[in-house]
Amino acid sequence: MPRWTDGENSCPFQTTLLRGQPDKGSHARSFPKVGRGEIRQTRVRREQDINTRYFRDYESLENAFRRRIATLLPRKHAGTAVFWRDFQRLFDALPASTSSRAEHYITSNPRDCLAFGTPRQVLQAVLMTTATPTTGMAAALEGIAARFGLRSHLNQPVRSLSGGETVRLALAKAFTAADRADRLTLASPFSWLSQNNRRYFYALADQCRTLGKPLEVFALEGEDDAATLDFQERLPTGPDFRLVFRQARVILNSVFDRLHNRQLRAVIADGEFNLRSPCLIQGDNGQGKSLVAKMLARAMPREGQADLETTGRKGRVRLLLQDLINQTMMRSFRQIATGANPGGAARVGRLYDAIRADMTAADETLAPDAIRSFEDACRLRTPATLVELKILLAAVRLAAGPAAIVMDEPDWGLRQSAALAYVRGVIRTAHRKGIPVLIISHKPWWRPWAGSGLAVSKVRSPEAAGSAEPFQIQMKRTKPAQ
User: Fold this and answer.
1) pLDDT by residue (tens digit) across 384-405?
2) Cα 478 from Cα 252, distance rounded (Å)
3) Looking at residue 40, what is its pLDDT?
4) pTM
5) Do residue 407 and residue 290 come from a single domain?
6) Which domain holds residue 295?
7) Please, what is the angle between helix 416-432 and helix 386-399, to 10°?
8) Residue 452 is inside which H or E element, if any?
9) pLDDT digits over 452-469, tens only?
10) Cβ atoms of 362 and 420 closer than 8 Å
């Protein structure tokens, strides 16, 4: 079985966090073995210095990030008991926690550092803490929104923003408050930002440099790699399926908006597409990829027809979100394994172990005991790791016999080699059951594996200002890699 191995030309760990054009070519990749936890701290010079610390797993990154921001956040990735213990400790320490140090940060899921319902409210709140005069606040808000590409999203619920739009909002908030910060720390920004949108990160880096504020990035190894990878292995294609969109609309406004008869919808252009698994759905940040996925999975209110049709399969389309920590709702490994499929834990276990075996066979950087077996993960009381939860949630969805499974930015929370092995394992396991796989991603890593592809783009309506349907999402077929 093909493996990603350590070789004479192994790619070094120092990756690029620099201005410039993405590498449009492809290159072969191998992944050297590393020790546990943090890989190294590097300083890269190109117009500015960006202090970046690389980690080999999500848990090491999150624990180091939490220590860096002075434990201002309870840990969500370690289970409910740890979360509530942290929360209680922080709550009890509130009277004594006042400090002259201004800590500003962006979490690995940027939604976790946004406390208000819309981008307008987020930016208004941060402007109120600055010296911005009340009379000039509206103009300042519009200027910041325009600078970070958010003018058309100011009144859109944060929950309906794409991942890229959400991190741009977090960057805009940090940019506005930078002059009052002692330092700024970001966790995994490149899991959310496409290559074309990294200019927003560099705008914040320039602002911090101008103000003399230290900026530090915590990243997983390889997450900032924007190159197309050249795999020696080509995965066999899977089943065919068809996507149909007719007068399809996603409802973006909240319940409160509907009570006041305020409407906000995204229109999906009509179309029919005959596709083959794995299907790669690509587009820049904010082009509507995740809205299409949520519409197919019926994860958001919708109108019209948006269907995935396969021969002999009548189940629902099941979705794996980018941030699986929130999707677990902090349930334990055992609760997830047995709760979604009562009496079906054995079936979930077989699928979990199949994906796990495929991953460890493909990625030599994974130690033999890096991912526990299904039985051990259910039996032991130690919290599951993120990669174990990602495998488990994929197994739970495959066990339900869906019409298809959609993986939204599946590399989130994984270093590059583990992400490649994980997606490979899910694809191979799903294809053995005749289940199509759709991959939503702004990264080019997956192109060599695609059996078909769709390019997603967003077009603003001519009457966008104040319109209930400010934009339309369009799709077109793309050729798979040869």
Assistant:
1) 899 999 999 999 999 989 999 9
2) 28
3) 44
4) 0.82
5) yes
6) 232-478
7) 20
8) strand 452-460
9) 999 999 887 655 555 677
10) yes
Q: Please give the Cα distance from 33 to 192 (Å, whole number).
A: 26
The residue with tokens 């997450």 is: 223
- Would you place residue 235 in the very low, low, confident or very high pLDDT band (cuts 50, 70, 90)? confident
Burial class (CB in 10 A: 0-12, 13-18, 19+), 135: exposed
67 Cβ neighbours under 8 A, 6+ residues apart: none
Residue range 425-450: mean pLDDT, rounded: 93
275 three-class SS? strand
Tell me how many domains the chain contains.
Answer: 2
CB count within 10 Å of CB 142 equals 15
For residue range 346-372, what is the model confidence (pLDDT) as tens digits?
A: 899 999 999 999 998 888 777 777 899
* pLDDT band at 96; cut points 50, 70, 90: low
Helix (H) or strand (E) holding 376: helix 374-379
CATH number of the domain encompassing residue 74: 3.40.50.300
Helix (H) or strand (E) holding 274: strand 271-276
- What distance lies between CA 462 and its chain's CA centroid? 31
> Rounded to whole angstroms, what are the CA distances from 88 to 84, 94, 95, 98?
6, 10, 13, 17
- How does DSSP assign 217-254, residue by residue? EEEETTTT--SEEE-S--PPP--EEEEEEEEEEEE-S-
**Domain end position, chosen among 164, 197, 226:** 226
Two tokens, residue 70? 């002075």
Structural domain includes residue 430: yes
Shared-domain flag, residues 278 and 349: yes
Please check whether residues 220 and 237 belong to one and the same domain.
Answer: no
In 3D, which of 272, 268, 271 has the Cα closest to residue 248?
268
Closest CA to 228 of 169, 174, 282, 156: 282
